[in-house]
Amino acid sequence: MKFLHLADLHIGKVVNEISMLDDQRFILSQILDLAKAHGACALVIAGDVYDKTIPSEDAVRVLGDFLTEAAERGLKVLMISGNHDSDERLAFGSGLFEAGGVYIGAKYEGKIRKAVLADEYGPVNFYLLPFVKASLVRYYHPDEELKTYGEALRIAIGAAGVDWGERNVIVSHQFVLGKGDLPEMAGSEKFRPEDMGTVERVGSEVYAGFEYAALGHIHSPQEAGGPQIRYAGSPLAYSLSAREIGQEKTVPLVTLGGKGEDVKVDLLPLVPRRRIRHLKGPIAQLLSQENVTDPDDYIYATLTDETPVPDAMDRIRSVYPNAMKLDYCNSHTRALEELDLGDIAGEKSFDELMGDFYGKIIGGSPSEEEWAILRAAAREAGVIS
Ligand SMILES: [Mn+2]
Fold first, then answer.
1. CATH of 276-333, one of 3.30.160, 3.30.40, 3.30.1150, 3.30.428
2. I want to staple 232 with a disulfide (CB 3.0 to 4.6 A). Which of 7, 16, 155, 261 is the partner?
């Protein structure tokens, strides 16, 4: 049996004020073509289906069209909710959808939903475990001593009645440590690993015994503790972080043989409708004709000109209409980075500091009205009394 592993679609995502819906439609259609070209019979979607708990009408339509198209092509869909999804809303109609081969595990209510597909070797059980917090699992298993997300998963999986003599796949959306290491973030995740308490970190050993663990949550494609425990990563770059710009996004094609046979994972490259690219240099160089390629791409431009360029963004958009972001890197920005704020502040009063700052940035000194606004803000922030 072959299936594609997707995760973190974030349908409806907006990156630097640009809607990704057309890009998402494009990449989802490419994924359907890949499924056909490689003979996959199912799509696994490991959570963060939508970007928001209340998705826009357009986002709902994109998912609806995608599921309909998948079902029309005879593909089964196995989907869970992630922390960005509303479990209740994603669960809507899931009982009905099953007749169309769309299995949704969006809401944990004490038992992991199991969907059974079959191939020439027999059944394959897909355990659809939505994103869960320890408190939710504790609510349904009050007799169990559990504090961490790892313990919660162990208990939830333990209660699922998995037949380890059969082939089993788990779909899960959690913060998983691979062999004790933190996962490598892409930059578009809405959390930082250093903010994740040890309670929320799940050891990859909780997925031991499954033929494959299809994970979601981290947007960089990677293994998490073994070749058959994987983050698919998001299908598109969703941030302008140095790591995610230019990162090749892939979709794992998982091939299951009979019980005990090796599980094969091939990473199929995805080609976005528009790439996000970071260009750096003086504006004249960036916009000179011989340097301009793929003008429809999403451009993040860093200008190295020493003086601010008038109407810089308009000029860039006249060549790159989908430019997303503009900033500068020159001797002034470098000097700012090197400034020691403690040094500058020294023993100066609020009025002296603000006066200096205003003089440097705007020139002159603030008007009485501006002083009133500055002092009101400072009072509110507790800086002055
Ligand atoms: Mn995500």
1. 3.30.160
2. 7
